[in-house]
Amino acid sequence: MCGILAVLGCVDNSQATRSRIIKLSRRLRHRGPDWSGLHCYEDCYLAHERLAIIDPISGDQPLYSEDKTVVVTVNGEIYNHKALRESESLKSHKYHTGSDCEVLAHLYEEHGEEFINMLDGMFAFVLLDTKDKSYIAVRDAIGVIPLYIGWGLDGSVWFASEMKALSDDCEQFMAFPPGHIYSSKQGGLRRWYNPPWFSELVPSTPYDPLVLRDTFEKAVIKRLMTDVPFGVLLSGGLDSSLVASVAIRHLEKSDARQWGSKLHTFCIGLKGSPDLKAGKEVADYLGTRHHELHFTVQEGIDAIEEVIYHVETYDVTTIRASTPMFLMSRKIKSLGVKMVLSGEGSDEIFGGYLYFHKAPNKKELHEETCRKIKALYQYDCLRANKSTSAWGVEARVPFLDKAFLDVAMGIDPEWKMIRPDLGRIEKWVLRNAFDDEKNPYLPKHILYRQKEQFSDGVGYSWIDGLKDHANKHVSDAMLTNANFVFPDNTPVTKEAYYYRAIFEKFFPKSAARATVPGGPSVACSTAKAVEWDAAWKGNLDPSGRAALGVHVAAYEGDKAEDTRPEKVQKLAEKTAEAIV
């Protein structure tokens, strides 16, 4: 995971400007601690902070075309770069590095701005054509890789991997929308990613479990492309467990490089948490080299300010989940690992959050999944990327593979409806696709384990501890006057107020606070889905336990039960028995 900063059209192109851009780029060095690069052409600057994953020796950036007239600074991975290099239009080109991203400059030479759909990967990049000083900036389909755009008073246009690199120098800025390209030639933003599901029309393709399984396996395998030590984040839930299972099956029959003789897996939680127990069980079943990491509520609270600075949000559920991931990433990096696979995106695609139990019909379920996927760049993608990159670790997310999305979002959503009468719990279509009696991917009770949101699964007392801490630091009077202090996106709980105050300290501009979404939510729902159950309107909390009547450890008034992990395990076992 690298950091990029590009400034195009500076009025002042003196040494002072160059020094300023180097200083701002340094704010991104946590993302890419391995090398720094800067290309200056007249009033245009492209800076890069590199995390070396592919071709660590020669793949430094910015990257160039053969005659060096096209310059590109990239954050991300192009999984089909070898196929593109060998394609008819590019096989005559000469390459200077083994970097997967060098192909971008050559694609531009052959196809102009219309090559983006040819890319299979996660990416954010800025490309400068010095022949006419035109440029483009592009963000991947779903927004797995972060990117921001800003405008200076001098007419300059800025692009950066994180807001902190441009917020001080830009008059206005915003999150660069995923699936878009910014073209200086054509003027402004336009969408390049237009899949069938984006219209939110209800699809009708019959469910084919083998096609779904095959497409997901390919999504995992292509993300094992690396020249450095890697692992899998394994919470023991369905999604991370499937990623680990598919990865280990492939590695056992391939010559892919590994860190030692076994796949390394990582899990974090408070001692005794549901994730730690389930993660170890899955690791033992798969035979991985498992690393169980612990943290205390106080250690998490002590990290909150750093987390908000790095993740650049005040969204409650994102901060709750980012903190343990941030702490885990530090431990992972200390072990020499630079890349991990993670399970983000599955719940949005398959309606896995517990509030989907209340979806009234397949049309509303499908529309909600579309809304959730479109918003991922503001929530789980942001968390997964920035929590890990804070320590120079790259997270890859196979569930958000373009081909897999096409298949999964093309399924008639009737199959995604939660139907207890038919034995279908949340994400049944995914569970069923990997329910192989002859060659099991996972134990039955893990395959049918109830959904736990990451911030819940690391230990229920984590969220309770955060609330208690916020209650001690935010008075009733402060919350009463919140609409005057924070008139935009006003916090409605003391926990939200606490996070917002920290965010404002780091990012005081109105443009910064506008990058964070708002609105009511229950168990991670959109505001629209809150309407599905009238009881939820008085219980607005992003925790899965707010799904009253669904989660086995749902909040009871203001309290939660103490025997939650055991109840979760029992439900999983009963569900597996029912399926069998």
Summarize this, please?
By secondary structure, this protein is an alpha+beta fold. It has helices spanning 15-26, 81-85, 103-111, 209-222, 238-252, 274-286, 297-311, 316-334, 346-350, 362-374, 380-389, 402-408, 428-433, 444-447, 454-457, 460-473, 476-480, 482-485, 494-506, 510-513, 564-579; strands at residues 3-8, 35-41, 44-50, 63-64, 70-78, 121-129, 134-139, 148-151, 157-160, 172-175, 180-183, 189-191, 230-233, 264-269, 289-294, 339-341, 394-396. The chain has two domains: 1-193, Glutamine Phosphoribosylpyrophosphate, subunit 1, domain 1, CATH 3.60.20.10; 196-544, HUPs (Rossmann fold).
Q: Which structural class best describes the helix and strand composition?
A: alpha+beta
The coarse overall form would be: globular
Strand order of the largest sheet: 2-3-1-9-8-10
How many discrete domains?
A: 2
Q: Low-confidence parts, pLDDT < 50 over ≥5 residues?
A: 555-580
Question: In the CATH scheme, what's the topology name of the largest domain?
Answer: Rossmann fold
The counted number of beta strands is 17
Return the CATH class of the largest domain. Alpha Beta
CATH architecture of the largest domain: 3-Layer(aba) Sandwich
How many helices? The count is 21
Distance between the termini: 42 Å
The portion of residues forming beta strands comes to 15-25%
Biggest sheet, open or closed, and with what strands and sense? 6 strands, antiparallel
Radius of gyration: 23 Å
**Helix percent band:** 25-40%
Mean pLDDT: 91
Binding site for ATP: 233, 268, 342-343
Site (Important for beta-aspartyl-AMP intermediate formation): 344
Keywords: Amino-acid biosynthesis, Asparagine biosynthesis, ATP-binding, Glutamine amidotransferase, Ligase, Nucleotide-binding
EC number: 6.3.5.4
